[in-house]
Amino acid sequence: MELSHGELMVMEMLWKGDCLDKNGEIQALELSKLLYDKYGMGKTSCYTFFGRLLEKGAITRRYPKYTLKPIVTRDEALKKQREEAIEMLFQGSIINVCRAFLSEKKVSKQDIQQMRDFIDNFEVEE
What we know:
The structure is a single chain. Helix content is 60%, strand content 8%. By secondary structure, the protein is mainly alpha-helical. A 3-stranded antiparallel sheet has the order 1-3-2. α2 (28-39) crosses α3 (43-56). The mean pLDDT is 90.
């Protein structure tokens, strides 16, 4: 689930949860006001992001008062973004990810040993 910067700002506010009622919901108008206060985001932009998040299955909408509820957790969304980025940028290869990051930086012997320990304890997918 790829989230744009604006969509991520909406989701972060929902994931934080301070604005949600006891049912884990918030009216869209109220959320748009909070987003304006915090980020200066206009109402039209908010509703555009709400619509996109609905299409992506990140939130649900309930009528009659256009009440929104997050249905994807932060961990689920970020895991999906990582998977999509690895697939798109590194042809789905963890080795390509490691090469990209390790080729740009000197690695200490301690770092290498920690990586070896991690690999030795890693569960292999059958």
